[in-house]
Amino acid sequence: MTKAAVFTANDQPLELMDLNLMDPQAGEVRIALGASGVCHSDISVINGTLPIAPPAVLGHEGAGTIVAVGDGVTNVKVGDHVVISWVPQCGTCYTCARGQGELCETGANASMFGSMLDFTTRFSMADGTAVAQMSAAGTFSEETVVPAISCVKIPDDIPFQVAALIGCGVLTGFGAAYNTANIREGDNVVVIGAGGVGLNTIQGAKHAGAGKIIAIDMMAGKLENAKGVGATDVIDASQTDAGAAVLELTGGRGADVAFEVIGLPATIRQAFDMTRKGGEAVIVGVPRLDQTMEFNPGMDFVIMEKTLKGCWYGGANVHQDVPMLVDLYKSGGLKLDELVSNTVSLDEVNDAMDAMGQGNIARSVIVY
């Protein structure tokens, strides 16, 4: 048995339950969670933006200790500390071989449908009802079973509460700037949305060599957080015309690269419009899947020669990028401790979800 926070219906609080948890099958491991970040994507499941059918154990940003391994597992062993990737990346399929591990063909379906790689589940209720797990992870649980390829070993001296953040928010944001975007030395960069992922986009842009990094949000607390991780300028969009302010800060030209880290068509359009001729806008936030947008292809893409691109999981190869980020953290080049706004118990998960909308919250972390 394991205690878990279960998504049972849209727009309802998570329910704390004792669930059955199967032993790991071939190619799988069982993990005792040390910590799990509470991410906006978890809210996106509850409100229906991300279509995962209940009941399901949410949570996808976690780190912990391997306590059991299934047949054929060779990349990790019992006792290892690991970060969990919410996209299992096999390293050998077509997309992995092309350096697009975030689009792994092996892991994509499991991540979307809340199953393991064989399309079956490992959690169940006392009456036998199958319980899915978000992104083949299910980190809102004291223990979970995940594919072994979802695990990246980390040094034992990395605190779980910061290691957990690497598995989603850090990789997604940092990778968007460092892997997906084409930031040149000294570029003017805009980041719309200074939540947990946006803060890491700022850090990635700084690491990629950006000159001016402009953070835009409507909450003063989030903008203060942005300054703390490398934003050179901040714009409170509740008080000023953000587009006009960006033009003023970039000599009337616009940003070289703009990131949208909220997931709304209106702010995606803003990000695109804030870029200069020949500039690039990167969508990091996930809009509702039924939302559409209109562009003028002749003016927007041909004459202006702008680029609009999506970014899934920071374009990350987790088996390369997680160790790189750990090294960067240990050398002082990546701020992770500062991203942990508060720690909570699993019993307080719904409070942490509610707190996500507050201006001073970068990340709440469940500590087990």
Structural summary, described in words:
With 368 residues, this protein is an alpha/beta fold. Helices cover 29% and strands 25% of the residues. Strand 11, helix 5 and strand 12 form a beta-alpha-beta unit. The chain is globular, with a radius of gyration of 20 Å.
Key traits:
Rossmann fold; Quinone Oxidoreductase, Chain A, domain 1; 2 domains; 368 residues
CATH architectural grouping of the largest domain: Alpha-Beta Complex
Question: What would you report as the Rg, rounded to the nearest angstrom?
Answer: 20 Å
Annotated CATH homologous superfamily of the largest domain? Medium-chain alcohol dehydrogenases, catalytic domain
CATH-defined fold name of the largest domain: Quinone Oxidoreductase, Chain A, domain 1
Strand content: 15-25%
Major beta sheet summary: 7 strands, mixed
Q: What would CATH call the class of the largest domain?
A: Alpha Beta
Shape: globular
Strand-pairing-aware structural class: alpha/beta
SSE pattern: EEEHEEEHHEEEEHEHEHEHEHEHEHEHE
Mean pLDDT: 94
Helicity range of the residues?
25-40%
Number of domains: 2
Termini Cα gap? 15 Å
Question: What is the number of E strands?
Answer: 18
Number of helices: 11
**Uncertain spans, ≥5 residues at pLDDT below 50?**
none
